[in-house]
Amino acid sequence: MNENNYSSIADKYGKWAYGLHINDIPEEVINKLKIIVMDSLGLMASAKNEPYIQSLIKALQEEGKCSLVGHNKKLSPFNAAIINGTAIHGEDFDDTFEGTPVHVGAVMVPAMLATIQAKKLSGAEFLKGLTIGSELICRLALVAPTAVHRQGFHPTAIFGSFGSSVGISSAIGNNPNQTSSGLGIVGSMASGIIEYLAEGTSTKRLHPGWAAGCGWQSANIAKSGFIGPRTVFEGAHGVFNSFATESIQPDFTHITDELGYRWECSNLAIKPYACGTMAQPFIDCAIKLKDKITNFNGIDKIVAQVGEGTVHRLWEPIKEKQNPSSPYGAKFSVPYCIAVGLIDGVAGLKQFTEKRLKDSEIKNLASKINYEINPKDEYPKNYSGDISIFMKSGEILSAKQDCLRGGRKAPLTFREVADKFNANLNFANIKKSEIQKLGFFVDNIFSCNNLSELENIDFS
User: What is the pLDDT of residue 3?
Assistant: First the structure.
């Protein structure tokens, strides 16, 4: 290969990103990303009192110009990005991308917020960087669906690092070569194993924040002249050969084909429930059947029809899933999620707490829920739900959910996302007047000259 003549995938994406004008971004993309920003900021503040956020604040104390949303505190760009990103993803209530689920807002919003504040840039530059990075994360997820998860890594942790790097490179004015180098550099920073599944521990929460912080570091290192490998995506030792199973052949055309004409980030989904993506349709099924059951003790068993690829994350070990050992583990337990859907009729932040986890009625019901693998299930192309409730009387109640509600087939309305935003801020006891200020800030975020207005919101 002649290195001087070869145009790598990172080169091509960096060149496109450098040439993108703010007027080239379609209205549908802008509208979706504004919703993502609103959802993300609400989640940042809603996690303000969580132990994992308090521990990070104790550990990462370097002061700077960047807002720690929910805390009336400012830190360095790197530290603010890590903590804000962890807060967004902390309760697994943030946006997702169908196919190979990645969480874009939890990486890109804190990455761009820190950058714009640190460099005193405009809302338009925030939008451009957010768009470029979000699009890359989604496209990377399409290259080899499920391959990164199957290898034992968290796709958000891996792909998110590249999105934050290219988005920040755009905002700080890196040229195409510097942008490509930044992508190469961040490939050596990307990390995130999924062993958190064993006990529901907090490392998954950290992944998008770390990816956001690594984007800041890599883009600035590249700007200084440091060189990274341009073949970071397709190379023999590149990201897919390192982080993805060999059993799924990557299709790299997804990264660069129709750039500027096909916008994958416009398909981002907003979660209606505070749990893992693939559990969501089963909650919809449970809620559909809630009013048909007058006595939960009359249930003999509940059986869900599932895709084989979801079993190792959401159903096994079955005893742990039927009786999760932590509220976070409950978010990746379909038996628990179905139980709260049937009993509470909702699955917001209040349903995934220590108190709710110990409820005897929920525990008893979850113990009756099991699964069967359906070979015709469309996962990962489509997320659906299918449950049957077998009553002791012999009656069988069934419900199906054909797609992910909040996804591209059934998107949430702006009003529904705004209601979620308000509910999450109320959960954190943010004053109504400050919620209104934050809503106004979101409405104008892409057109303001700077993001200093965020400093005037009291999150105490």
Answer: 56
Residues 297, 300, 301, 302, CA torsion sign? negative
Segments making up each domain of the chain, as ranges:
9-271+424-456, 277-401
Distance CA 160, CA 82 (A): 12
| Torsions phi, psi for 237 (to 5 deg) | -120, 25
Tell me the two tokens of residue 293.
Answer: 């059951």
Confidence (pLDDT) at 1: 40
Backbone angles phi, psi at 152, to 5 degrees: 100, 15
Instruction: Tell me the pLDDT band of 200, cut-offs 50, 70 and 90.
Output: low
Residue 361 has pLDDT above 90, yes or no: yes
Q: Residue 395: CB partners within 8 Å, gap ≥ 6?
A: none
- Closest by CA to 38, choosing from 409, 427, 428, 444, is 444
- Please give the residue that has the higher pLDDT: either 312 or 14: 14
Rounded Cα gap, residues 245 and 238, in angstroms: 13
Is the CATH code 3.30.1330.120 the one for domain 277-401? yes
Q: What value does the mean pLDDT take over residues 193-202? A: 79
Q: Can you tell me the distance from the alpha carbon of 81 to that of 213, in angstroms, rounded to the nearest whole number?
A: 5
Question: Which of these, 57, 158, 39, 117, lies nearest to 414 by C-alpha position?
Answer: 39
Name which CATH class applies to 9-271+424-456: mainly alpha
Question: Would you list the DSSP string of 353-365?
Answer: SHHHHT-HHHHHH
SS3 56: helix
Question: What does the alpha-carbon distance between residue 183 and residue 148 come to, in Å, rounded to a whole number?
Answer: 18
Largest Cα separation within the chain, whole Å, is 75
* % the chain with pLDDT above 70: 98
Predicted confidence (pLDDT) per residue in 282-292, tens digit: 999 999 999 99
Confirm if 136 and 189 have CB atoms less than 8 A apart. no
φ, ψ of residue 329 to 5 degrees: the values are: -60, -30
Q: Where do we find the tokens 């006595």?
A: 295
Q: How do strand 396-401 and strand 299-306 relate by DSSP bridges?
A: unpaired
Q: What's the distance, Cα to Cα, between the start and end of the chain in Å?
A: 58
Q: Which of 309, 311, 7, 283 is nearest to 148 (CA)?
A: 309
Spatial separation of the C-alpha atoms in residues 214 and 149, rounded to whole Å: 21
